[in-house]
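Quick start: what a row looks like.
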Amino acid sequence: MSIFSHFKSMKKHAVKEWDREHLKPVVLSSICTGEKTAGFEDEAGHFHAVMLVRSPEELKAFADEYGIDVDSIQIRY
């Protein structure tokens, strides 16, 4: 194991900031195709897509990236 791979594993994952007061985390799920997109919805109901979600692991990665509890994410169809 090289010293560089050791430092890579020590890399901290910073939580990305988002407007917690005006945005809420949402997953939009298509009833036709099942495609899921994670993002944020503002007070006016506009959705701001962040990433495509193809597995529970990717949903967890989205939640970890933004410091969100997975259970608090709303799913919209």
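That is the whole record. Residues 56-66 form the longest helix (11 residues). The helical segments are 3-9, 56-66.
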